[in-house]
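Progress note, sequence design subtask.
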């Protein structure tokens, strides 16, 4: 029987599309992850750390919260994706902003919109994993490590345009994670122009 190691594809290996679809096909309701990475802001490279969750059933949703240090001050950024709306909260605003979008931090973001490529089989501390590469709807490249035994995600590593990278490392599955929109009173009212634009894009 042919085997694979060190990222070398083998005969009978799954396709990248099959690998990337595994988590949504698995017996997985929700998964918690830790966030680590670096982002560049105004020429400064910032280290970030935090956590979040992806919801697979009953409907796709997700959230993350991370913090970084800017000029000696801790900055916290949060994002929620649910029902086709992305909610964001940054230090620049006292309330959440809401944006209708087909992309966000939910499981569909890691299904691979283009450039799908199966890399091979790798052995990680959480078990044997299929390693696949793809780009999301925004053109950001990412590597996915999906556990062979149950189809659960072990790790996603996203490299954004500009060299930024964010790693989601999963540490809990089916642990009761939930995602809900922020309270209406905490959401910033859209401007008239934004409302008109949203209405126009929603019209057939």
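Output:
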């Amino acid at each position: 029987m042919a085997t694979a190691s060190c990222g070398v594809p083998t005969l009978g290996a799954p396709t990248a599309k099959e690998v990337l679809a595994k988590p949504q096909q698995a017996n997985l309701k929700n998964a918690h992850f830790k966030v680590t990475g670096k982002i560049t802001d105004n020429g400064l490279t910032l280290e970030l750390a935090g956590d979040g969750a992806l919801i697979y059933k009953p409907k796709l949703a997700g959230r993350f919260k991370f913090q970084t240090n800017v000029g000696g001050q801790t900055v916290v950024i949060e994002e929620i994706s649910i029902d086709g709306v992305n909610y964001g909260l940054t230090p620049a605003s006292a309330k959440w902003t809401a944006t209708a979008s087909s992309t966000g931090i939910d499981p569909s973001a890691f299904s691979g919109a283009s450039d799908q490529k199966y890399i091979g089989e790798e052995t990680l501390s959480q078990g044997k994993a299929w390693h696949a590469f793809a780009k999301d709807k925004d053109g950001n490249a990412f590597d996915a490590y999906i556990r062979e035994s149950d189809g659960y995600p072990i790790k996603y590593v996203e490299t954004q345009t500009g060299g930024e990278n964010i790693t989601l490392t999963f540490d809990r599955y089916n642990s009761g994670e939930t995602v809900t929109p922020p309270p209406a009173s905490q959401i910033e009212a859209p401007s008239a122009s934004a409302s008109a634009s949203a209405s126009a894009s929603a019209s057939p």
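The chain has two helices and eleven strands. Work on this subtask will continue into the next period as scheduled.
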